Amino acid sequence: MVFFGAKAPRAALAEIALLNASNLGLLNRAWRLDRPAAAAIAPYVVWTGFATALTASIAARNPGR
After folding, report:
1. Is the C or the N end of the chain the one with fewer CB within 10 Å?
2. What is the pLDDT tens value at each position of the chain, 65 positions in all?
3. Rounded to an integer, what distance in angstroms lies between the CA atom of residue 32 and that of residue 55?
4. What gap in Å lies between CA 1 and CA 36, rounded to an integer?
5. What is the largest CA-CA distance in the chain?
6. How far is 29 from 38, CA to CA, in rounded Å?
């Protein structure tokens, strides 16, 4: 919502960084408790990492936002 709704790529980058931290924590806990569940979560963690790279690229190209 921050990226598209508020049109604030830098704020969206901060938000997705927090999401990545949460995702990594979840993946770590899942890995210790249930490895098949961790394997199911892993693609989402990779996807949000990719989305972070895209958001960072857009934020860097739009310094006035």
Report:
1. N
2. 788 887 889 999 999 999 999 999 999 999 999 999 999 999 999 999 999 999 999 999 988 76
3. 30
4. 31
5. 45
6. 8
